[in-house]
Amino acid sequence: MKNTDLVAVQPVESLVVPSALDGREGSNRGVAGSSQLAADNDLDALRAWLSNYADTQTTFDNYRKEAERLLLWAVVQLGKPLSSLTHEDLLLYKVFLADPQPAGRWVSLRDDGTRGGKYPRGDERWRPFNGPLAPASQRQALIILNAMFTWLVNAGYLRGNPMALLRQRAKRSAPRVTRYLSGSLWDEVKVWVEQLPQETEAGRKYYARCRWLTTLFYLQGMRISEVAGGKMGDFFRRLGADGQDQWWLETAGKGGKARIVPASPELMAELWRYRTANGLPALPTRAEEIPLILPFKGAARCLSRSAVHDAIKGIFGGVAAWLRGKGTEFADRADELDRASAHWLRHTAGSHQADGGVDLRTIRDNLGHVSLNTTSLYLHAEDDARHRETATRHRMNWRNRGPA
User: Fold this and answer.
1) Which coarse location class applies to the principal site listed for this UniProt protein (predicted)?
2) Shared-domain flag, residues 142 and 207
């Protein structure tokens, strides 16, 4: 029953699936009366699965994206319900992920016609893909979908998991982190930022943002969601054991788990620079709702994760273009920066701290790889040592070029 005109490609929250494709009669549906879900169609079953992740926005968005892509592909491309997909269908889907075709239906475009345009989910130009998925993204998509099918089987909604029949590669030991910038390449980023023009107000604001963004990601090792959702009021100070003020930044990581990250004197000097460049008092107050990254226009509200991602990619793209202008011998370094993203800065922060001799337990706590337990609330001496070590050994070392 293939009819690619039955359903328009649109986000699941506004999607209307014809009854013939909604899964009520799916060939892989569970035994009548055995489902533990109130859902009687595929779309509602997916929503029930996604509701388990509603408290973790990043995970929810990633899981919704993969479920949405598969559902749309099933009903639009194959003309069959998701609950009728077979092993052979999913083999075709693996190929589709590597190059979604026809691109006009599946891939969003910029105004100039090139791939990669990003639009709000309610925009008619929105599409499920921004281009072909990299191998790592393809694997991640299949992992998420396998978890989804397993849950639907366990809930009694489906009889079997067609993903379970796909050939799985042998598990390998966790590889060393490779998505980070070497010390020399990181220096190139800083040099590029430092030479940005500041002759105009717009130039000064762009320079201030680039400098603050790279500083914040690098010194604090934060996730993009933490930076995007962070407020100036998340900075606070307390008295250390030596009687001196210590500044800290409170943030909520995966699953809403809170942690505090040392805010070194260098970071606070950069915060002062960024705030004064934007007409704010030098230091924040605990009650401030001003975002960590200020928008260039409009109300002072938090940027979306995609906007922060684009800002970092813009910096890396600028550095890459600058390096290519220096000669062909810099092409490989430029290509590396073109691949880099905001998460590379988190890996770069961790790698450079380790290389600089920072204790691994300090890095673990700074990056939030292990959640804080109740007893850590009383370990003020340990926190003091972590603050001193982070501030001393992990530095940005700008050349302190003043405003033009």
Assistant:
1) cytoplasm
2) no
Whether the predicted pLDDT of 371 surpasses 50? no
Q: What are the two backbone dihedrals, phi and then psi, of residue 109, each rounded to the nearest 5 degrees?
A: -125, 150
Q: Partners of 251 in the beta sheet?
A: 259
**Where is 179: in which H helix or E strand?**
none
In terms of pLDDT, which residue wins out, 230 or 357?
Answer: 230
Looking at the 3D structure of the chain, how many domains does it have? 2
CA neighbor of 247 nearest in space, from 281, 294, 284: 284
Q: How confident is the model at residue 227 (pLDDT cuts 50, 70, 90)?
A: very high
Residues 275, 284: Cα–Cα separation, whole Å:
9
Could you tell me the residue range of the domain that residue 115 belongs to?
12-165
Angle (CA) 301 221 341, round 5°: 75
Whether residue 33 has pLDDT greater than 60:
yes
Which residues, in sequence order, are CB contacts of 355 under 8 Å at separation 6+? 183
241 and 114 in a common domain: no
Q: What is the mean pLDDT of residues 358-365?
A: 72
> How many residues appear in the chain?
404
Q: Is residue 193 domain-shared with residue 321, that is, in the same domain?
A: yes
